[in-house]
Amino acid sequence: MQFKVEQVGAPTGVARATLLVPLLILLLVTFGLIALFSAGYSMSLREPTAAVARQLAYTPIALLLGWLAWRVDLDRLRELRWPLFGLVLLLLLLARMPGIGRMVNGSWRWIDFGLFRLQPSDLAKVVLVILVADHIARWQRRSLPIREPFVTLSGRQPYLFTRGRWEDLRDGFLRPMLPVLGICAGIALGPDLGTIVLCCFVAFAMLFVGGARLSYLGATLALGSVAFTYLILNWGSRLRRFLSFLDPEGRQGDESYQLFQGMLAFAVGGVTGAGPGNGLQQRAYLPEAHTDFVFTIIGEEWGLVATVGVAGIYLLVFHLVMRELRACTDLFRLSLALGCVLFLTLQALVNMCVVTGLLPTKGISLPFVSYGGTNLVTSAVLIGLMLNALRDGGRPALRPAVVPASAP
Amino acid sequence: MSLPHARRPRLRILVWLVSAGFALLLAKLVQLHAVDGPRLRAKALEARSERSERPSRRGEIRDRQGNLLAATDTVWDIGLDPHVLAPEDRARAPEVAARLGLPASVVLAAFAEERRTRLDASGAARDVRWIVLAKEVDEARKREVDALGVRGLYGQPRFRRAYPQGSLAAHVLGYINHEGIPVSGVEKTFDDLLRGQDGWVESERDGRRREIVARRLRDVPAVDGQSLELTLDSVIQSACEEALAQVVRQHRPKGAVAIVSEPRTGRLLALACWPTFDLNRFNDREAAPLDAQRNRALADIYEPGSVFKVVSVAGALESGLVTPDTPLDCSADTVPYRGRMVAMPGDSHRMGVEPLRAVVWESSNRGTVQVAMRYAERHGEERYVELLRGFGFGAETGLPVAGGEVRGILHAPSRWDGLTISRLPMGHSVSVTPMQMHLAMAAIAADGLLMRPLVVGRVLNPDGSVAIEYAPRPRGRAVSAAAARQMADLLRGVCTRQGTAAAAEIPGYDVAGKTGTTQKLVNGRYSSAHHVASFSGFLPASDPRLAITVVVDEPTGSGVGYGGKVSAPVFREIAQRAIRRLEIPPANPAPRGRLVAER
User: What does B536-567 look like in DSSP terms, one character per residue?
Assistant: First the structure.
């Protein structure tokens, strides 16, 4: 018996991204380890290599989990989305509990499991992507062009708000917003404003590409901007901190100390860098050189060539994935891959913009490069899921129609 | 179901937006790395670069026995980095104040939150990283403060000049002011040697201001200053100062000077001035008024009076115009001189025709003037002044002690008036410093050689090796050796019962010397109430090892301040202690010595 598998659009074979992306990621991890080697001196003068050793120890774990994410059955995972959502909310709540959660830099973001520390917001990112992608694929009917025009040719005034329109709004837009809001609320317990903004942006972009109506998106953007502005203005010292990035040199004494020192690192690096191991800005000038400001170490030691190179790698990964996406036929997998790559790219972009003074300072790390096990593992899982989705995305969107060849 | 065709543009828009973000980042990176680079790089390197001084230690000053006269201590300036100070330590300000011996309010103010920044000239806030709390805290107190464990409290070491002997030889040593600039004394003259060469370290530091040793560019070690070993003898110096204090108690003068040196080498053994001051408190107007800081031996001039007669007599002896036995008519009121009659000065008591010997012993003005007149008639007045200059008058002595030395006043014959020839020989119409007079007398003792005065015997390197050794060196010959010996012989008689300075006699030693009593010019007239009493002499006369000069300015009290009455006892007091100190054997050997020889 023969089966005819209908190919809808995508080419067969291993996608280019599947080969290139892991290689590029490996390059990033290497950069991160070298930078960490330099930064080790500012973390512990006695054991400058301890951080590198710890980060190296996380690498196989990240590889394993990334591989699992690559091999996992996405449809099975999709079915588990609501239990996962519940788990994430629970973890986010636990992180806020004194005694279970840990406070770092005035923010509850960590759960200490003794052996390792988990940042629930990282897990939340993965779940968020699955939930939104699922919704886009499930409810795309609701985002098709409006069936009931406002003006009819007959001249009869239609109802402004019909049942059909409400169902469009509810199922096409409000439904996915609920889990997004839930996760954002959970992260806000931290609080971790940077991650909230990132999650909103990614969800927004996914809905945008997924076909949500521009009127809904526009209204949401407007509402979100108002809410964000309100938060900034009324959140104690936020405004001052928020705006301090505009004048790092003038505020180098307090709010912008770290930012300004980071900018100095780029300047010292110049075009070709001071040389590996010769960077000094991380020597107690930059308190968080190994995590959020790791890009500055690269800038100082390797110069413009390396910073542009690193930024270029992220951009290249993004473009490679976007290219593959065009051939993707399955909307769930397309959205999933899009969400994953956006989390990586936007997080990287935001981090690099922050340390160069283009965006206000937020605690957002550079994926694969910054020190930290959860960061590495989460990024690897995102990449694994993305490649997983791309691998299967080229298949026919519908279950392959099994048609006996002998049928008439 | 694939992405609806209509949504493809949305994907493209997203790609463009993200790419635009990266383009913006690229522009910013180029700006940071390359465009703003040089300016910001200079800023970063400036913040990192560290140039720290390695202060050198100033050399010590010791006397010739090695007793420390000037030393360099390490003291600490205690200050605070308000950014390192922990908030919980703010409450400990009173403790810190107590250990530092400061009022609590001062430390509390320094510990205050608002002292963390200050406004600079342009009104911008600047971080304050150093607030000085106490200066020049000694080692022990610094350790007490350290023991408190208050973070941010640091000590900055520095050197402080200290004079362990206080006022001893204050005018010879001089001092360093608070700016480190030498003001007077050998501290000033030998500053080039005493001062070391500061070293420095050029390096980089990290954000906590710790030096990164691997980045050290230059490390120039400090070279400590050289030490001076003076020719002074602390025992003789303090003998002088005590003797002056004694005469001050008795006669309440305005000032007094005592100088002791080795005549044959020119080495200064002691130089004492009164009033004096504590070198460690030079800044204290009460304890050390400027008047007390003046080196009267170099900066003050006086009319030397009879002591000066030595010079004329020695010159006349040298040229053979007189011998100790030459008779001189001390009763004549006028004497012919170069075709005119010159009025003679008065004498304290009338004398007849006396031999030169007696003229010197009894210090006859008329006799001495006639000797000088003979000299001037035979050789000319110019040569007479040259004779005086040969003894060092009218010129700086070359004693390497900075102290506003003056040359005194010795007029050339062209500026003489009719009476000068009758006044100059007896030490009027001429002004000298005590040091000049002392060296002239020392020249008689040193067989007519005017020695260069030495105050520094050796200069030692920091490791103790000898860098410079100052050997005795004559400045010139004042008179012939024979004349000097004859003169010394005459001067021995002064310090006996027949002379004017019986009070200077020391049993067992033959002392040579000359008294001087000068009326001071007060309101243009010689005053009979204001005197300078001086005595200058040496011993043993046959082989002089000590020359001592004592000048007492305006002694008051018991009648007229004759040099023999006021200064000669001081001379004797100093000489006796110096003899013991230097173990100078008496001229007449003690009977015990003979016993030993017979046995």
Answer: EEEESSSS--EEEEEEEES--SSSS--HHHHH
Whether A267 sits inside 8 A of B208 (CB atoms) is: no
> What tokens appear for A168 in the block?
């469009």
DSSP for B128-197 reads ---EEEEEEE-HHHHHHHHHH--TTEEEEEEEEEE-TTTTTTHHHH--B-TTS-B-SHHHHHTHHHHS-B
Statement: the pTM of the whole predicted model exceeds 0.90 = no
The reported pLDDT for the residue numbered B595 is 42
Q: Flag if A325 and B11 touch (Cβ within 8 Å).
A: yes
* 3-state secondary structure at position B464: coil
C-alpha angle with apex B226: B225 to B231, nearest 5 degrees? 140
Q: Show which of residues 174-213 on chain B sit within 8 Å of chain A, judged by CB atoms.
A: 204, 206-208, 210, 212
Any CB–CB contact under 8 A between A347 and chain B? Answer: no
Please name the fold of domain B234-598: Beta-lactamase (3.40.710)
Grouping H, G, I as helix, E, B as strand and the rest as coil, residue B127 is strand
Cα–Cα nearest to A265, from A295, A308, A244, A287? A295
Domain extents in chain B: 234-598
Give the DSSP per-residue string, B78-91: EEE-TTTS-GGGGG
For residue B270, give every residue at least 6 positions away whose Cβ sits within 8 Å of its Cβ, in sequence order, or none: B169, B232, B233, B236, B237, B239, B240, B258, B259, B260, B574, B578
pLDDT, tens digit, 9 for 90 and up, residues A35-68: 888 777 666 656 777 778 888 888 899 999 999 9
pLDDT given at position A300? 86
Q: Which amino acid is at B77?
A: D
- Beta-carbon separation of B25 and A349 below 8 A: yes
Task: Check CB contact under 8 Å for A331 and B3.
Answer: yes
Listed by start position, the domains of chain A span 2-403
Of A280, A322, A349, the CB nearest to B204: A280
Q: What was the ipTM of the complex prediction?
A: 0.87
- For residue B273, the model assigns a pLDDT of 94
Q: Which residues of B touch A318 (CB under 8 A)?
A: 15, 18
Give me the pLDDT at residue B382, please.
92
B contact test, residue of A44, A143, A146, A209 with most B CBs within 10 A:
A209
Residue B125 touches partner A, C-beta closer than 8 Å: yes
Closest Cα in chain A to B19: A315
Q: H/E element holding B204?
A: strand B199-205
* A311 with B39: Cβ contact below 8 A: no
- Which chain A residues are within 8 Å of B204, Cβ to Cβ? 280
| pLDDT of the residue at A42 | 62
CB atoms within 10 A of CB B375: 24
B22 touching A, CB under 8 A?
yes
Decide if B341 contacts B334 (C-beta within 8 A).
yes
User: What residues in B contact A358, CB-CB < 8 Å?
Assistant: 24-25, 28
Residue appearing with tokens 């065709």: B5
Q: Does the pLDDT at position B591 exceed 50? A: no
Rounded Cα distance between B399 and B174, Å, is: 14
Copy the structure tokens of residue B30: 């180029």
Spatial distance between the Cα atoms of A146 and A123, rounded to a whole number of angstroms? 36
User: Does the beta carbon of A352 lie under 8 angstroms from any beta carbon of chain B?
Assistant: yes
Please check whether residue B20 touches A, CB under 8 A: no
Residues of chain A with pLDDT below 50 are 1, 5, 7-13, 397, 400-401, 407-408
Task: Locate B352 and state its tokens.
Answer: 């007849």
